[in-house]
């Protein structure tokens, strides 16, 4: 590696979602609506779960923090993206790019583990309701959320430092609508083994452990639901988890597609389309999809054979 050459790069050009001039205004309108709905939906969740005393439960605690993370993830990317639809020079400074990458990584990692925590919360609520207030107490929720934020920030600092330790001494045009690992690695003229290894290791480790929690939780939840005698009880239990399962499937699916494939197999244009889902579309869909229809499943749990 050539540690000093990367200081010659002072700015990057974000190519955006499309290079067709006639599509810039239509795309601006579409993504402005998406971002507006994301802000309205997630801010509504944060405010409602903060002021309503009946929503001071672990389930809504994690939902509130997921909404905060969705707000952060979208706001790191969408404002700059919207401005670039309206300007000719789609420029982002070197340090602005580093901040955007670090913020994006921090919020994505936090979302991965908050979704895992929500899956575990539902597992305890459905499979061990008598222990719920002990296992998922307010103090444990606060501690868990603090650990998630600390770990996500640590990961963001580590990975973004590795990526921006490379030399960028040729093209500065990023084939993406925000600063992401893969297109930045494609621009480097130095050895990318260490940053690629860091990205793959952190991505793989985070996805593996969080998916183990999610899959184990839902495997036990499904077994518990199948033991419920009445169809009404099964439907009530399933309704507490179905929307979360759908959101987790879409979110994890796009991340697995993006980050756990070799660099040689990457199509940056395809990656851009996948990125739209987990950076802009999923944060917009999460508020209505993830609002629990029931604050537990006490009625149906009684029907599960001991």
UniProtKB/TrEMBL annotation:
Keywords: G-protein coupled receptor, Membrane, Receptor, Transducer, Transmembrane, Transmembrane helix. Residues 41-290 form the G-protein coupled receptors family 1 profile domain. GO terms for molecular function: G protein-coupled receptor activity; olfactory receptor activity. InterPro entries: GPCR_Rhodpsn, GPCR_Rhodpsn_7TM, Olfact_rcpt. GO terms for cellular component: membrane. PROSITE patterns: G_PROTEIN_RECEP_F1_1, G_PROTEIN_RECEP_F1_2. It comes from the Eukaryota. It is a multi-pass membrane protein. Signal peptide: none annotated. This is Olfactory receptor 8J2-like. The lineage of its organism: Eukaryota, Metazoa, Chordata, Craniata, Vertebrata.
């Amino acid at each position: 590696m050539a540690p000093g050459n990367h200081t010659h790069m002072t700015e990057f050009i974000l190519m955006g979602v499309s290079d067709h001039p006639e599509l810039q205004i239509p795309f601006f309108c579409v993504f402005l609506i998406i971002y507006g709905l994301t802000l309205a939906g997630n801010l509504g969740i944060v405010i409602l779960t903060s002021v309503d005393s009946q929503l001071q439960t672990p389930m809504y605690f994690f939902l509130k923090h997921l909404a905060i993370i969705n707000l952060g993830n979208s706001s790191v990317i969408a404002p700059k993206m919207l401005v670039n639809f309206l300007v000719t020079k789609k420029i982002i400074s070197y340090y602005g790019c580093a901040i955007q990458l670090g913020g994006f990584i921090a919020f994505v990692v936090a979302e991965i583990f908050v979704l895992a925590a929500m899956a575990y919360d539902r597992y305890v609520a459905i499979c061990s309701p008598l222990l719920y207030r002990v296992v998922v107490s307010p103090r444990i929720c606060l501690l868990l959320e603090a650990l998630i934020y600390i770990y996500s920030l640590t990961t963001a600092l580590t990975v973004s430092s590795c990526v921006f330790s490379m030399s960028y001494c040729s093209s500065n045009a990023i084939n993406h609508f925000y600063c992401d690992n893969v297109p930045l690695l494609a621009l480097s003229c130095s050895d990318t083994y260490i940053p690629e290894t860091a990205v793959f290791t952190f991505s793989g480790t985070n996805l593996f452990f969080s998916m183990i929690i999610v899959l184990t939780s839902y495997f036990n939840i499904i077994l518990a639901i199948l033991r419920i005698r009445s169809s009404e009880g099964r439907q009530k239990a399933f309704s507490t988890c179905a929307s979360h399962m759908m959101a987790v499937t879409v979110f994890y699916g796009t991340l697995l597609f993006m980050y756990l494939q070799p660099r040689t197999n990457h199509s940056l244009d395809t990656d851009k389309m996948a990125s739209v889902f987990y950076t802009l579309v999923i944060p917009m869909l999460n508020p209505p999809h993830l609002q629990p229809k029931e604050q537990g499943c006490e009625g149906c749990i009684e029907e599960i054979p001991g």
